[in-house]
Specification:
Layout (H helix, E strand, L loop, with lengths): L2 H11 L5 E2 L2 H4 L16 E3 L4 H14 L3 E4 L16 E4 L6 E5 L4 E4 L5 H8 L4 E2 L12 H7 L6 H4 L2 H4 E7 L5 E5 L11 H4 L8 E8 L1 E2 L3 E9 L2 H13 L6 E6 H11 L9 E9 L1 H18 L3 E5 L2 H12 L1 H5 L5 E4 L2 E2 L5 H15 L3 E6 L4 E2 L1 E5 L6 H18 L15 H7 L2 H14 L14 H6 L19
Parallel strand pairs: 2-4, 3-4
Antiparallel strand pairs: 1-2, 5-6, 6-10, 7-11, 8-9, 8-10, 12-14, 12-15, 13-14, 13-18, 16-20, 17-19, 18-20
């Protein structure tokens, strides 16, 4: 079917304000948070109801028009990057909190609801939503599901996958699937974990049911300062080894500390080579014991100072620097490239040291600010996109960091997803057999490859070209996977 006929059909089901074809108006949709990669879509649709989403999907599936779902556009791996001949399906207008169920401690949400808005709505009932990415003021719940987002508190309370109990999903044909729900169990296969982190490649989420937690009776935040990242890394391991599971445990290196302090004035020690922010929660009696234990552990590991914030205002100031670290780093370089890999905690000091060596080798500064408790690294590689060839060097260096994460027993992503950014490193992480299984799962949900094509799963031919896949007798099996 011709584009003009597809466009006519889309116009027939959507209000005029929900269909964008003007080139200038489409420009905000040509990239997500990975701004180094851009592509203008053919058309942008902004449905207001589930029925409209279903109709868009039926039209696009019948005509094999690619569909790229988009939430708030804060993703950092290019997962919402459009394709030039496809439709961007923006879900920002579906932003209603449908229900706060205090008896079951859950919230039922449309996908465009902001992450922070869930906690704000639940606060009057003494409840909150635990996953809190740095972008929580803007990022949407639907996008959180697509990328399996984490945040500061994921060490103790888990990622999105651990806090989503139900989903309503539209298949590529516009059919409704309901997975999980408010009950403790649901009939059929448990597909929630398959959908969390699927990057819009299997279906379009139209409702999310999330678990709400009661506010802890008390909490405190500790700031431990160290001479270098190796000592801070040892303190992370010793704290967990002691049996303490903090609500949050974040590390920032010298460059990140200085940038955050200049930006947020949070009272961070400028002379520190690294700091740990450690949040503890529980009853007042628990906190007294935990504070003493953690203070002793980090002091023994080499902390030269330990400060404690006990009231909410002090804690907010202490967290302000960490929460604003990314924009803070953006003030000291024209551009930065945010990586996302996960490693075993015991290898933290070693890998951070290797990142410093790569920084010197490539002549590119790196600021490290990350979830230390679960080994989720976020090296921020500073560069200037106006310098010819510098972006390519940054991408090469970032690829080497991710490959090192795999070598030490980690993964190429912790919470930012794969998108288009990490396709090459997926060839390093996974075997041919595993990639073929991923493709089979994709084909079950989306046999024509309409949903978010070219994302998350590299083709076998791509891996062979990179030397990361074995070629059998000069041929690659499963050649038809290239259509995805």
């Amino acid at each position: 079917m011709s584009r003009s006929l597809v466009l006519q059909q889309l116009k027939s089901i959507l209000p005029p304000a929900s269909l964008i074809t003007d080139a200038a108006a489409k420009r905000p949709y040509e990239t997500d948070g990975l701004t180094a990669l851009r592509e203008q879509p053919w058309v942008v649709v902004l449905p207001e109801t589930e029925a409209q989403v279903a109709q868009v999907l039926r039209i696009c599936a019948a005509c094999e028009v690619p569909v790229v779902a988009r939430g708030a556009g804060t993703g950092l791996s290019g997962g919402a990057r459009p394709v030039s001949d496809g439709v961007v399906l923006g879900l920002s207008k579906m932003n209603r909190i449908l229900e706060i169920d205090i008896d079951n401690c859950v919230a039922r949400l449309q996908p465009g609801v902001r992450n922070l808005a869930v906690t704000e709505a639940a606060a009057e009932y003494g409840l909150y939503y635990a996953p809190d990415p740095s972008s929580q003021i803007a990022c949407s719940i639907g996008g959180n599901v697509a990328e399996n987002a984490g945040g500061v508190h994921c060490l103790k309370y888990g990622l999105t996958v651990h806090n989503v109990v139900g989903l309503k999903l539209l298949t590529v044909e516009g059919e409704v699937l309901e997975l999980g729900g408010k009950g403790l169990d649901a009939p059929g296969y448990d597909l929630l974990a398959v959908l969390c982190g699927s990057e819009g490649m299997l279906g379009i989420v139209t409702e999310v049911v999330v678990r709400l937690l009661p506010d802890p009776a008390a909490r405190l935040v500790m700031l431990a300062a160290f001479a270098d990242t190796e000592l801070a890394s040892a303190a992370v391991n010793e704290t967990i080894k002691a049996g303490v599971i903090p609500a949050g445990m974040e590390m920032m290196d010298r460059l990140a500390v200085q940038a955050a302090e200049d930006f947020a004035h949070a009272g961070y020690p400028r002379g520190a080579g690294a700091i740990l922010l450690i949040e503890l929660d529980g009853t007042a009696a628990e906190l007294a014991a935990l504070e003493a234990e953690v203070t002793a552990v980090v002091r023994a590991a080499g902390a030269f100072s330990v400060d404690v914030a006990r009231d909410a205002q002090q804690q907010a100031i202490m967290w302000k620097g960490r929460k604003s670290a990314f924009p803070a780093v953006g003030r000291i370089a024209p551009d930065y490239y945010c990586m996302d890999g996960t490693i075993p905690r015991r290898r933290l000091g070693e890998v951070l040291g290797e990142i410093n060596l790569l920084s010197r080798e490539y002549g590119l500064e790196v600021a490290n600010v990350f979830h230390a408790g679960d080994g989720n690294l976020h090296p921020l590689i500073l560069y200037d996109a106006n310098v010819p060839g510098e972006l390519a060097r940054v991408e090469e260096m970032g690829g080497r960091i991710l490959e090192r994460c795999v070598e030490v027993g980690g993964t190429v992503t912790g919470e930012h997803g794969v998108g288009v950014e990490k396709l090459d490193q997926m060839c390093v992480q996974f075997t041919e057999a595993e990639l073929r299984q991923f493709e089979r799962l994709k084909a079950v949900f989306d046999p024509a490859g309409v949903l978010n094509p070219g994302k998350a799963i590299p083709t076998l031919s791509r891996c062979a070209e990179l030397g990361g896949m074995h070629v059998h007798r000069g041929e690659l099996p499963f050649r038809n996977l290239d259509r995805f």
